[in-house]
Amino acid sequence: MRAMYSPQRVAQSEFIPVRGLQYHVWRWGASQSTQPPLFLLHGWMDVGASYQFMVDALNNDFVQNRQIFALDWRGFGRTQPPIPTDHYTFADYLADLDQLVDHVALNAPVDLIGHSMGGNIAMLYAGVRASRVRRLINLEGFGLPEVAPVSAAAHYATWMDQIRQLERGELALKSYDSLNGVAERLIKTNPRLSADKAIWLAQHWSVEEKSGRWHIRGDAAHKVSSAQIYRLEETLAIHAAITAPTLTMEARSDSMGQWWKGQYTLEQFHERLSVVPNCSTEVIDNAGHMLHHDQPATLARLIEAFCADEAQGS
Predict the structure, then answer these.
(1) pLDDT (tens digit, 9 = 90+) per residue, 26-82?
(2) Sequence-distant (≥ 6) Cβ neighbours of residue 100 within 8 angstroms
(3) Which pick of 38, 69, 74, 252 has the fewest CB atoms within 10 Å?
């Protein structure tokens, strides 16, 4: 097996009861904290452990008086899916996060960082529960292209078709013959990911079955699209209700342009951000979509400065 990354800060693995599920979280930092808790929200087909490299890059002064939590969303990582289930909704993610925040912080506000899908959830939560979020950081959580209402009927039909595909096993996640095979898959997706980090992440991103093959820690039902179309006006109205100072980070390589190929652009995303009352943007060099893997130290410095008490004049 390849040499494996050695974490500088060892996380505690914990389970928290949330809405009938045992929600898995990784926890770093002080057991007794004076600073707001920091929640790290991962993206689609990722896991909470994905933030380990970024947490390791944080300064001791930032971590020693703060608890940091990286959750595994329902049906990802070590958080099992609800049974039965054949699709997932953003509304459930919001309700899950709301109860996790209550469990950890009671009535106090928290700092939120979300990547990709997690960034979209963080933005929505910060608008819906504005008083619960002190600082908000969005890592490449761009949202989706606007969908016209006239497309709703076809969209529902696609959703129903995908559920049938799931039932027939046509949306099953790929398995691998070894942990090294999983690591190679991670590197193929992100060539900037070093081999030692890939093999470390692979052990959290996958699990060995009795057959000896390695399966991704994710529910195939996540591949079923949302039943509803993406309603831009609704999203913008929620974003406009955000009161927390907000920082968005994006890769200079324009990963969104590579993914959507003109269907949705960075310029359009920046136009949407104009409704957020107190929002700034940082562009990260030498990074792709997985900013927290590619430039963890750069992100750590920006996070420390932004989450300081004097950040954004508040």
Answers:
(1) 999 977 788 999 999 999 999 999 999 999 999 999 998 899 999 999 999 999 999
(2) 16, 18, 23, 25, 39, 69, 71
(3) 252
CB atoms < 10 A from the CB of 169, how many?
8
Contacts of 260 by beta carbon, 8 Å cutoff, 6+ apart: 145
Q: Can you give the chain as a three-state secondary structure string?
A: CCCCCCCCCCCEEEEEEECCEEEEEEEEECCCCCCCCEEEECCCCCCHHHHHHHHHHCCHHHHCCCEEEEECCCCECCCCCCCCCCCCCHHHHHHHHHHHHHHHHCCCCEEEEEECHHHHHHHHHHHHCHHHEEEEEEECCCCCCCCCHHHHHHHHHHHHHHHHHHHCCCCCCCEECCHHHHHHHHHHHCCCCCHHHHHHHHHHHEEECCCCCEEECECHHHHCCCCCCCCHHHHHHHHHCCCCCEEEEEECCCHHHHHHCCCCCHHHHHHHHCCCCCEEEEEECCCCCCHHHHCHHHHHHHHHHHHCCCHHHC
Rounded to two decimals, what is the model's pTM?
Answer: 0.96
Q: Determine contact, residues 24/79, Cβ cutoff 8 Å.
A: yes
Report whether 152 contacts 229 (CB < 8 A).
yes
